[in-house]
Amino acid sequence: MGRMHADEHAIDTTLVRRLVRGQFPRWADLPVTPLASGGTVNAVYRLGDDLTVRLPLTGGGAADIAKERRALSTLGELPVAVPAVVAVGEPAEGYPWAWAVHSWLDGAPALEGRAVRGLAEFVLALRANTAAGPPARRGQPLAGVDTATRRAIEELSRTDEPFDAEAALAVWAEALDAPQWTAPPCRLHGDLMPSNLLLRDGRLTGVLDWATAGVGDPAIDLIPAWNLLTAATRRAFRDAVAPDDATWARGRGRALSMAVIQLPYYRHTNAVISANARYVLAELGVLTRSR
């Protein structure tokens, strides 16, 4: 991974050890190990066998510490494990923001193109969760990201990616034209990327990164249909979740918007995110897979 953001704070194992030793001396002797991650908001380190340390990379991501803590504290019963916030650290040692210690969840991140059992069950269970929550940013009408999406499509069309801007605009127009969600807001995760989905033996057992959680249009939690599944498993996922045609179209639009914004920004700095963006765009039929 390269430096992803212009205002990214330098974080390394030594800094993490100093922060832990200074604020949580009971964990001072635990080994600290950096975790390979496609994440764009936090640097993540394993602390001993049972904990992880999450440090925001930028000031913009620092607010997510409190958002995620609130979201995790209000979740009802779910069919998968979610991390617990064990402690929250304060700025120190030259690091300017709050940071968090979470419980460790076993499991391997999902991989594009692999079948995932239990995904639809989780999405439906979360949607049925009646706990109150703030509006999810990605649960709002797609018109709010229209300008950014069109700008990203134009930018991507100027790169050497085998990208069909006209086809992308057609997918986007269909999503914008779809009727909006008018039912009561649903509980959402908002960022069901493969790296946030933990599997054991092909079954979903844990879901990470709840900073984008809230309530709103459930279309956002359909994005694994394109960022993870194949045509065959996508059909099964759709049948199990049973969204109406308009919600499915908005979900497809969300997947497109996220991918076209991510790819130009991360194509040289985050191999995991850029590869997933290419996977999404290929599944949507707007980018040719490399041979």
Question: Secondary-structure map with pairings?
Answer:
Elements: H1 13-23, E1 32-34, E2 42-47, E3 51-56, H2 59-62, H3 64-73, E4 85-89, E5 99-103, E6 108-109, H4 119-128, H5 146-157, H6 165-177, E7 186-188, E8 197-200, E9 203-207, E10 214-216, H7 224-227, H8 231-241, H9 245-266, H10 271-283
Antiparallel strand pairs: 1-2, 2-3, 3-5, 4-5, 6-8, 7-10, 8-9
Helix pairs in contact: 4-8, 5-6, 5-9, 6-9, 9-10
Q: Mind explaining what this structure looks like?
A:
With 291 residues, the protein is of the alpha+beta class. The protein has 2 domains: 13-105, 2-Layer Sandwich (Phosphorylase Kinase, domain 1); 119-283, Alpha-Beta Complex (Aminoglycoside 3'-phosphotransferase, Chain: A, domain 2), CATH 3.90.1200. 38% of the residues lie in helices and 14% in strands. It has 10 helices and 10 strands. The strands form 3 sheets. The protein has a 5-stranded antiparallel beta sheet, with helices on both faces. The two termini are 23 Å apart. The mean pLDDT is 94.
